[in-house]
Structure formats: structure tokens, C-alpha cells
Amino acid sequence: MKNTFPEVSISTERLVLRPLDEDDAPALAEMMNDELVAAWTAVPQPFTEEGARGWITEYAPQERAAGTGLDLAVTEFLTQRLVGVVQLTKTNWHVRSTELSYIVAPWARGEGYASEAALATAQWLFGDQRLERIELRTAADNTASQQVAQKIGCVSEGVLRNACIARTRTEDGTWAEVRTDFIVWSLLPEDLEGVTDQLAEAGGFTAFSDWN
Known about the structure:
Blueprint: E1 10-11, E2 15-19, H1 25-32, H2 35-40, H3 49-66, E3 70-76, E4 82-92, E5 97-104, H4 113-127, E6 133-139, H5 143-151, E7 155-169, E8 175-187, H6 195-201
Parallel strand pairs: 5-6
Antiparallel strand pairs: 1-2, 2-3, 3-4, 4-5, 6-8, 7-8
């Protein structure tokens, strides 16, 4: 029997992580067209609502059905507005590992949502799904994303040299690809011990201005 992630809803103090819905398409497209998101991710530019609907209705269900991943909308508990996305990819059920990534919408940055969503996802993966390893990869110059990894207890394992393709704006306004390094992080169940207490002592999730 093939292992797959369930259609789950994960709640935190401020957020609800749930499956992407077609109603999310306009906000998802707007979020993916943001300059920083475009710079640090591989999403097509410009990112259309049609592309967003394809992600929601085709790509995400296929990834979950194949057992390789899971895409979750990150929404505010009080307003229900979309504020980000958490993705699980390259899941290996024999090794019990997965790769986690996160994107926060420009209208929700500086609230600590990336770390709150990532930590809640990790707790669910280690608890309910009994995974043993979560891997994160951050571009060498993406310091905000690295701060999120550090904040939730990840350990830096090393550098994949020249393995990341980022994008930068050219003088004529188009995007050009540039190569950089990936920093590889890992999170194990024991790494989460004390993380919640440390966050409380540091003032909660808003200590860093995270976006991706």
C-alpha cells in the first residue's frame, strides 16, 4: 500500500494550514508575482491565475496522490485570508524524510508566519506522520529564510555549491537567472525539544522579519 499524506488541517494560535482551494487562486497568483518570491523561487513569471488554478487542481493533488508531497495554504485564523504556502516535496516513506519549503505573501511579512507555519508542520510530521527527518534548502543569500530555519531548531549540514538558480532583475526589467549555493538544513524530532520555550523567551514568532 502506497503511503500518502492525508488531507489535513493544522491549527496554531494565529494560523490554519489547510489544502489549497480554487478560491485561493487570485491571492496565490498575486503572492507568486511578488519580486522577492520571483527572485528566490522557480515559479514561472509572470504567474497567472490560470497557473495558480493548475497548481491547486492538478499539481497539488497529483503530488499528494503519488505520495511524494503535500501543498498547504497558510491562512490567518481570524481573517481566513491567504498569507502563505507550505510545501512538502521529495518525500521518502522508507527513509521517512521530506523536504519542507515556505513562502509568505508580501502583505503578511514581518509577522513571523513562516516560522509559525513551519514549526507546526514539523510537529505534525514528527508526531502524526512519524517522519524522522525534515530537510530545508535555502539560497546562500536568502538570509530571511535562513533565520526561519534557525528559529525552528534546524541544524545547518553544509553547502551544495552552485546548486541553486535564483533570479535577478536586469536593466531592461526582465528576469535573468543567476547561480548561487544552497545551504542544507535538517530537522530531527529531538531538535524540537525546547524550541517552543526558546521562542517564548525570545518574544514569540515575530522576532524575525521572515518572508520565504
